[in-house]
Known about the structure:
Blueprint: E1 2-4, E2 16-17, E3 23-25, E4 44-50, E5 53-61, E6 77-81, E7 88-93, E8 96-98, H1 116-129, E9 134-142, E10 146-153, H2 159-164, H3 169-178, H4 185-195, H5 201-209
Amino acid sequence: MLTRRSQALPETGDSLFxxxxxxxPMVNLIVPVFDxxxxxGVPDIRVIVYRGVPAMAMLRLPTRASDGKANLxxxxxxxxxxxxxxxxxxxxxxxxxxxxxxETGHSLRDRQIPHWQTILNMAAKLGDKTEFGYLGVDIxxxxxxxxxxxxxxxxxxxxxxxxxxxxxxGRLKAIDHxxxxxSGIPEKIAxxxxxxxxxASSINVLSDLYK
Length: 211
C-alpha cells in the first residue's frame, strides 16, 4: 500500500499545510516498537512547537474505533510523552484515560520513542523557520529512514493537553520568559527538556523562572 503527500503551501486562514512530497511504502512505517500498541494503521508523533521551542508532545495510535487511523476524533488513542526522555505516559481515548491499548491490551506507559532527539530537532527547526509562532509538527517513523515529516498543522487540537495531564499555558509563558536567553535550536531543545520534564524537578525549574 502506498501513500502520497503533495506540497500545499498555506493561504490566509488555512489550518494545515503538507511538506512531505515523496511516496512512502506504508509497510516501512510500521516500526516494531509500536507493534504491541497499534491496531493495523500507522502511529504518528505530534510535537507542539511555540516560537521554535518544543512545548508538548504525544504519540497518536490507531484503533479499531478509528478504523486503523491515528485520529483522536475518530477514536484513536493519544499518549502523552515526557519531553525530557521521549518515554510515553498515560493514554487517552474519547476523553477517558486508559493505561492499555483497547485492542492489544498492552501497556501504553514507559515506551521509548525511537530517534527522540532527532524528532525534537526536526520540530524545533521547522518551528523556527515558519511564519507560525505556534504549530503542531506531525512525524512518522520509518524502519530504514528513521523520522520523517508527515505534516505541519497551524491549528493543532488541544487534546494533547489531556494526554499529558497538563495545560499548555504555563509552558508557553515559561518559553516567553526564557526565550531571550536561548540563542539557538540546541539551547531551545535543552531548555524544553529540562523545564518540561515529567520528574518533580521540573516543578522547581518552572518556579525558578518566575522568581
